[in-house]
Amino acid sequence: MAAVLLCRLEDIPDGASRGFDPHGEGRDTVLVVRQGGTVHGWRDACPHYGTTPLAWRKDAYLNAGGTSIVCAAHGALFDIATGVCTLGPCLGQGLQRVELLLTPDNDIYIAPQGARRPT
């Protein structure tokens, strides 16, 4: 599978999140959180029920302080960097990572399968 362009880094404000529908499924299936020059990608599905979307409205994936990803259906909190549930009914479970590539030109792509995340 080829890399899929999501957006440019500046399209997501620092400390904010955004949902994407990269495969035309009619709903956001991927969420991206920006922390400075770092982006974290996750499948938009709570592990408590597997397919439950996380956001309570478009692009609203973070708690009020912007420190955690929140599942609006269950109130579960997830660490932005690791995806691990830190509070709620799925404690210890985690979100499914979506590997991203950030180019030198600040384009954000879903990485092709088998690609390694830059270190």
From TrEMBL:
SUPFAM superfamilies, sorted: ISP domain (SSF50022)
All residue ranges annotated as the Rieske domain in the record: 4-90
Gene3D superfamilies from the UniProt entry: Rieske [2Fe-2S] iron-sulphur domain (2.102.10.10)
Alphabetical UniProt keywords: 2Fe-2S, Iron, Iron-sulfur, Metal-binding
Molecular function terms from GO: 2 iron, 2 sulfur cluster binding; metal ion binding
A Pfam match: Rieske
Protein name: Nitrite reductase/ring-hydroxylating ferredoxin subunit
